[in-house]
Amino acid sequence: MRVETINKLCCSFDRSDLKLTVISKDVQGNIVEGILFCEQCRRIYPIVSGIPIMSPDEYREFKLEQPLLQRWAQGKVSDNFRLIEKEAGSV
């Protein structure tokens, strides 16, 4: 996925802008792995093999996405694809 593509994407739930966290890029600078995050509704969408997974919640499979989301996210991910903040004092 090209970095410029993020400007054309929005949250599939509430149509808000998304924040991009890049995990890895290829030699051309395209995003291979990353996370798109909606600050409004706190949903997260992974980018896997350059493809953003942005299907509505009812069509996503949490068990398939959970290992990636838990590894990359900076907090815990709930089973409805929302980021839960880390508690104060936790690592």
Brief synopsis:
The strands form 2 sheets. The protein has a 4-stranded antiparallel beta sheet, covered by helices on one side. The protein has a two-stranded antiparallel ribbon with strand order 5-6.
Structure write-up:
- By secondary structure, this protein is α+β, with helices and mostly antiparallel strands.
- It has one domain (3-84).
- Helices cover 12% and strands 30% of the residues.
- The protein has 1 helix and 6 strands; from the N terminus they run E-E-E-E-H-E-E.
- The chain has one helix spanning 62-72; strands spanning 18-25, 31-38, 44-48, 51-52, 76-77, 83-84.
- The protein has a 4-stranded antiparallel sheet, covered by helices on one side.
- A hairpin with a 5-residue loop joins strand 1 (18-25) and strand 2.
- The chain is globular and about 35 Å long.
- The protein starts with 17 loop residues before the first strand and ends in a 7-residue tail after the last strand.
The N- to C-terminal Cα distance equals 31 Å
Task: State the order of secondary-structure elements, H for helix, E for strand.
Answer: EEEEHEE
Low-confidence stretches: 86-91
Treating each run of at least 4 consecutive H or I residues as one helix, how many helices? Answer: 1
Q: Indicate the percent of residues in helices.
A: 10-25%
What is the makeup of the main sheet? 4 strands, antiparallel
* Number of spatially distinct domains: 1
Global Rg: 13 Å
Arithmetic mean pLDDT: 79
Strand content: 25-35%
Shape: globular
Enumerate the strands of the largest sheet in spatial order, edge to edge or round the barrel: 1-2-3-4
Q: How many beta-strand runs? A: 6
Structural class: alpha+beta
